Automatic annotation (TrEMBL):
Database matches in Gene3D superfamilies: Multidrug efflux transporter AcrB transmembrane domain
UniProt keyword Amino-acid biosynthesis present: no
InterPro entries given in the database record: MMPL_dom, Mycobact_MmpL, SSD
Pfam family, one: MMPL
UniProt entry keywords in alphabetical sequence: Cell membrane, Membrane, Transmembrane, Transmembrane helix
Origin species: Shewanella vesiculosa
Protein name: MMPL family transporter
Membrane topology: Multi-pass membrane protein
Amino acid sequence: MLEKLVNGFESHLFRNRKWVIISFIFITIFLGYQASQLKMDAAFSKNIPLNHSYMQTYTKHQKDFGGANSIMVAVEDTSGNIFNPEFFDALKNVHDQLFFIPGVERSQVKSLFSPSTRFTEVVEDGFAGGPVIPADFSNDEYGLKVVRDNIEKAGIVGRLIGNDYTSAMVSAQLMEFDPQTGEAIDTIAFANQLEQELRGKFETDKIKIHIIGFAKMAGDVAEGAKGVLLFFLIAIAITAVMVYLFSKSIVLTILPLMCSLVAVFWQLGLLTVIGFGLDPMSILVPFLVFAIGVSHGVQMINAVRRRVLDGQTTKAASASAFRSLLVPGGVALLSDTVGFLTLLSIDIGIIRELAISASLGVAVIILTNLILLPLVISYFELPTKQDNPQKRQQIENIWRWLSKFATPKYAVVVLVSTAILYAVGFQQASKMQIGDLQGGAPALHQDSRYNQDTFFITKHFSITTDVMSVIVEATPEACTYHSVLSQIDQFEWMMANTPGVESTASLASIAKKVNAGFNEGNPKWEILPRTTASLVQAVGQVPTTSGLLNSNCSVMPVYLFLKDHKAETIEVVVDKVKAVAAELNSDTLQFKLASGPVGVMAATNEAVSEAQLPMMLYVYGAVFVLCLISFKSLKATIAVIIPLYVVSTLAQALMTLLDIGLAVSTLPVIALGVGIGVDYGIYILSTMSNKLSNGMPVQQAYFEALVERGSAVIFTGLTLAIGVSTWFFSDLKFQMDMGILLTFMFLVNMLGAIIILPALSAMFWRKK
């Protein structure tokens, strides 16, 4: 039945091939224009699991306490002392410039020049205080001395002033939407503005500007992503050379490359049509689409070329190749597509967009490389010169040697070796951690400007950039009750003594300091007052702009400043928060995770961890079902899947050896590797299964499958691996990591298809 449908489809297509090709041309022009309208899109909200419980807490209180999408600008005086007129002029300029950049929440801009930056001191009559930089500030020796005294009274050293007095901080929260236009903030344009308006204007030999925050990181990643175009061109050049060496024909070199590029144009154009932008992480997908297209294109030109050499006309050879490859190629590409769609199960916008982007690209390859390519080839005359008989014999000798893997004697050795390799790999893969394993921004190299800025701020300020805030929800006016603040104080003390936590801050700890101030600064009085009247007096000195309480005192965050955001650190802190919260939570008081940059990371890590197993089950389930439908054989399906599973495990083991954590950028690689790797096994086993069903012995069936498809399988494995190996030199660390993992998976999946698959076949079809 299936064969009849394929034959009918082929007859209809080739009878109307001219009109089909013209239709492809018009669609390509339309989608090519749409692709030219595609824009980069790196919205903060796409990078977080919005439906996670942590993020529900985050969004609920974002208006009162700000979110994780913040900017920190450290202004450094390279002379080693900030108390000079030139530095204070630069600091004020940076504060003012940041204040007026569209997208900045102006009420949340904080520095020495913010009116909310105040000092308080104990005097004979009680308290005295005011802005750290007074209204009549003069930028001279006397004025700077006053400011220095106020800084020390304000207790902001380590927060707004560097511990060594070499730098000062300007921080701000960002809005999701531009209040002037109502449109979403263009994160990448904002990052460029920071670079031009701050670093470009105010950095000198004496003044250095250090900028960190999600928006700046996204901008640096987007800047590094521009290099992807160069890698794409290099990959096209390498692939063109490899295809020519394989086909010995300029026509058969140009056509599969052209059809693969058409698939890329279609994919990019369709993204615009459905209203998507191109995220820096998804910018690698067009290369994968091109690579997969070339892989299937090579199978097609190999099949056509073999038939032409056997004496068929180009048109007849193209039609025959189309009939033989439509089902296995279609099943392989459907497996890829469904495999990528399984990434939709991960509740993170950036991964879902990558899933849709990759699925669209692979789906259109069915049209461009399995339908368009043979139709176009049919119009060309191909060389009929046979290969050198001696060379053909040498190649056949290689296939004859490889066919030994399909004999029981060699199969036992292969399968035992595979089992040992899998056991070692599984043990190593079990050590894989969820999250980032390096300091700084994991998407960028350690020596990047952004990460160097991060390390500078971490080194010179007590508050790190790795902040997690635990939201304490209570009843209105709860902060006036000793029982409430004492529990917050107890929680803060337990978290302050947790490994990985550098320092903490909360309304309770500030209220204790204020209470001591009301008692002549005596350290003995640095406690929480037990009477409501005294507590109101202490808490009343803390404004809502401090971020320590909301307007009716029913929500009070506890800030945890962590030493870093490595996976192990976050896991330890989150586990401790959950354990302590379980002890202290009551009907009227709830400690809820989480907000702040590390709160977002914790939610993301948990989302990735929860999605890992379901994603793999969906990927392998989809491949299993499609192979079962295609081969109608459980044994054949298992023979394809086992090598894939072994390679996936070994890839995870490689991640642990290279200190690559399972994160948003690396999680899709496993699905991509499985989806692309299944192609090799399907092409080889589809040829074998036809011959096995006709009674041919396993070794002979495998030998003939190698003669027909072996060169194309090995060639595509090597070509794909060489193409992605160029990513090792990328400015983006996550691209380099993906390049390492994909190179490994392309090569080892190919080896699995030509070594492990025939060994399994020898065991499954022993009677043959």
